[in-house]
Amino acid sequence: MNITPLPLGFGAVIEGMDLRQAGPGSAKLLRAALLEHGMLVIRGQSLTPQEQIAATGLFGSLETFPTMRGQLDGLPEIFRVASRPEDGHVEVGRYWHSDGSFRAEPTPISFWYSVLQSDQGGDTLFTDLQQAYAELQPEIQQEFAGLQTAHRNGVVHPLVLKHPKTGIPALYLNLGLTGGVLGVGPERSQALMQAVDRHYSRPGATYRHHWLAGDVVVADNLHVAHKATPIDPAARRILNRTTVRADGVIWPDEAGGTAGRLAA
Ligand SMILES: [Fe+2]
User: Fold this and answer.
1) CA 264 to ligand 1 centroid distance, Å
2) Where in the chain is the domain with CATH 3.60.130.10?
3) How far is the CA of 50 from the centre of ligand 1 (A)?
4) Which residues, at least 6 apart from 146, have a Cβ–Cβ distance to it below 8 Å?
5) Which tens digits make up the pLDDT trace of 70-120?
6) What digits encode the pLDDT tens for the residues 199-238?
7) 140 C-alpha vs ligand 1 centroid, how far in Å?
8) CA atoms of 195 and 193, how far apart (whole Å)
9) Which CATH number fits domain 2-115+211-222+232-246: 3.40.50.300, 3.20.20.450, 3.40.50.2000, 3.60.130.10?
């Protein structure tokens, strides 16, 4: 397995890995690489839904979702994102967010497998939430560290969320589902959210994933956020998404490490 960091300061490309064959040794390397880099790109995979569930299980136990149109019978672990309603959920996540941020204990890990992809848009953008916090002016960091945000469903999170394994602070905000920043008034709340939105998209900070069929992307949702881009509704695309439960995640025993040391 080769692990090559992307040039952005987050994310890494994994090569020489067939996720169907991943044993305990590979699982350890993958978990360590995800914790270090925040996002893994693993192209050229061939996974049935059951194999995707097994591969996601390398990172912990899975969340399940209600049966809906376009979802797979008997496989509640698979959440389908699609361009057509008969294939899955359409028009989702067109704003910066981490999946499952509306939960009291946010969803730690998302795993996408590209089943079907046309060439008509639908790229996914990623941005590093830890770097976003680190690059703020110290006085802004101090201000933000005292703020909390409320989702529209009432769930409250600190704006600066510490990673449960590494303790590294991240600027954590769902731009679509958050009702506001608590205790600052509506105008200030809106201005803060817009400022964070722009900061996530600052030049040089985002990775754009252009999906090919067979791609897998794994994200540590407490380290990176993502955002969908438009797709031609006439084009057919399906992404099967699986997610790891907060109470079932397996973080590696040792934080840190280097790409060189992990390369095998
Ligand atoms: Fe998402």
Assistant:
1) 31
2) 2-115+211-222+232-246
3) 21
4) none
5) 888 899 999 999 988 889 888 889 999 999 999 999 999 999 999 998 877
6) 999 999 999 999 999 999 999 999 999 999 998 888 999 9
7) 27
8) 5
9) 3.60.130.10
